[in-house]
Each structure stands twice: as structure tokens, then as C-alpha cells.
Amino acid sequence: MAIGLPPSSLPGAVLFCCTQNAIRSPMAEGMLKQILGKKIYVDSVGVRAGELDPFAVAAMDEIGIDMSKHRSKTFDALEDSSFDLIISLSPEAQHKAVDMTRTMACDVEFWNTFDPSIVEGSREQRMDAYRDVRDRLMDRIRERFPILGAPKI
What we know:
globular; 35% helix; 153 residues; alpha/beta
């Protein structure tokens, strides 16, 4: 059983970013908010704004997280850029995050995450791809932020 981190060792603000802020980064944002949203500030952006993916909404709904009101935004639309940690989920977002933080005291981590929207096949095959991305992101989040007393989802 892993010993969790004390809340004082958490970053104060985390930004997830991906290519269009339509699947991966809003999923990660929703999960971390569900786990630690009262303890840290969490947001997400994309290199470009895209349309929220209904498969992502459905996959998150399965674990009790409502993403339906998420609105995609870009790095340029950020109202505040005071983040302690930026986690990029696509190569394009990683380049943008590194560029943005050249003059900031901010850690950047790259969690290269598969884009499930490229999967073709039946609805169930496509949903399985989104579930896999969701579950892998949840595993990474729990590993990266193992806080004492965090709720199980």
C-alpha cells in the first residue's frame, strides 16, 4: 500500500495540455479535479481549440465525471499562467509548454498519451479506445499525485 504525499507537497496549480483540448487534457483535468480539486487549482488547454468529443464525455460519464460543460480553450486564452506544473499529453502540446515556460519557474512533464479519436471500427471498439486512455490517465494521475485520503473513483 503506497503512502500518500501530504497535501503541503502538492503543486498549487496544475495545467494539462494536449492538441485540441477536446479529449485527453479535459479528461485529465476532470479526474484530477475530482480527486484534488479542493486542494489545488486544475485547468486544461490545447494548442488549438477543438470541439468536445462525445466519446470522451461518455467515457468520463461512466466513472461519474461530467465533462459535458467543458469548453475547449487554447494557451492564448489562459487568464492566468501561474502554474507550478504543466503536464503535456501530446508532442505538439509539449513543444508549446516548453516554449511557454522558458521564462517561468514551472515544471513541465510529458505524458505522451494516445489519441483515441484516430481509432476506427464499431462504436464499442472506439469506446474501448477512449476507456483505455481514460484509465491510463487515471493510473498516471494516481501515481503522480498519491495523496493521503484522496477519494477512490
